[in-house]
Amino acid sequence: MKSNTQTSRLLQGAFILSAAAIISKLIGTLQKIPLQNLGGDAVFGIYNTVYPLYTMLLTVAMLGLPAAISKFVAEASAGRRDEEGRRILLLSALITGISGLIIGAITYAGAPIIAEWVGNSHVMPALRTSAWGLAVVPVMSAIRGYFQGLHNMVPTAVSQIVEQSVRVTVMIVLLLYLTSQGAGAESIAAGALLGSAGGGAAGLVIMLLYLRRHRRRVKQEAAAEVAAAEVAAAVESQRVRALDAGHGLGSKQGFMGIKAGTLLAYGIPVMLGALAMPLIGLVDVFTVPRLLSSDGSEVAAMAQFGVYNRGLPLVQIITMIATSLSVVFIPALAEAKYKGDMKLIETRCSLSLRWFWLLGLAASAGLAVLAEPINMALYGDTAGSSTMTWLAFTAVGGTVSIISAALLQGLGYVRAPALHLLAAALLKAALNLLLVPQQGITGAAIAGVAAHSFAAALNVLLLYRQGHLRLRLADALARPALLTAGLALAAAAASWGTGAAATAAGIGGGRTASLAQSLLGVLAGCVVFAVGAVVLRLLSESELRQLPGIGPSLADKFKKLRLFP
Questions:
Q1: Distance between CA atoms of residues 462 and 460, nearest Å
Q2: Against a cut of 0.85, is the pTM above it?
């Protein structure tokens, strides 16, 4: 019964955390659209240059300690050593606070040097304002790790949503103010980056409030235990004193075993693994602006880099969904491997890869076909639509890379996905140097498609070589290609028909008409995808039910709609 309760609590916590992560990431991704609308492409380019650097520095400043705190606090809580857990939090908060302040100071003082590495001096003010966020966010993350160790995910979830909401609010308020004052692109971008510090401060306040309430509850529980112990002492004083002495020594010894070195030994490998994820984006930061500015002004280069990044929020939504869903496969495969059920491992790997491959293809094809109306609807013009078309196909490589990495991690291959991303980043750098001077931002988009596809191919190849995956060309290429072609034709036809009708009505060419083209094109593509997947036998009811977590409920819904033969 106790085991069931703990499992239920863990599943509930995972759901809360996943939902909050999706909401906060959605807010963080979609805020880029008003940023470009209000600030323009140059501001958008500067922001998208500095923000990946900020997230990388933030990852370094946290030293992987939130994960370490969660682990060691969970162990202390299981042993009823609450005081040890609180001391772990204090030690970790101190380390991350000092680390954040040092890295923030280095970023602020070294902004001219970093700007020189990037190859564009206009990023320097934004780098300096982003440094303020480094002073507060690491401490907030440490407190989040503490509550996660206690299996209480609500504080983390609330603080994530508050952090992103305040960040976007501060950003938009400063955008409106600075643009009304006629500020330059670098000043406006710096104001937008200041939102990270505002959001971090708000998130830290939320976590401190939760921490204070938690401590009050702990004190009340301790007082109640003391009162109960005093009553019991009247009858069994000698035994109670012996137990108290034993508990006190255990807490002290437990804490003495948790030193800064122990926390860092666990956290730093986690940090290094996290740094592998944004490598491909960081390659763009350090190569594309420099290559673009070699034939023109730095402001024009940043404007072009902003146009290049227009399609990224949409691709990031797709990969964000893949990331959120991929977490269910890690424990599911780990359990199957522990039981030695190789057939179940093969089935789950094949099924999940096939479906994420299909979803990635569908999203890429739809975004590619609808790139021009989507560009017009979101950003007010069609600049860079051909680049967005190419960039759309990073979604399929990114999606397969994410799910295959999760499968490998669930099977115990932890380092391989990070090494594959490193290899993909090196390929991206080489292709950028080759293609950007010739084709500009379109060359960078083509390099991105190649890099993400390369990482995905390496992951899939490892799964295949280890015997965890069956590859059939009909399932992997022929029928998915037919389904994708039908989806693309349906989306294009719906978009063209809507555009023609809008033009005939005298309202064509504007953002409203383009929005209608985009939405109806997406709807048509989704309908064809759902029906085509069943008709082409790319999905059966039994296969869908084998997906961990979401499979059975989806199968029931599809069955009610009579989509299965």
A1: 5
A2: no
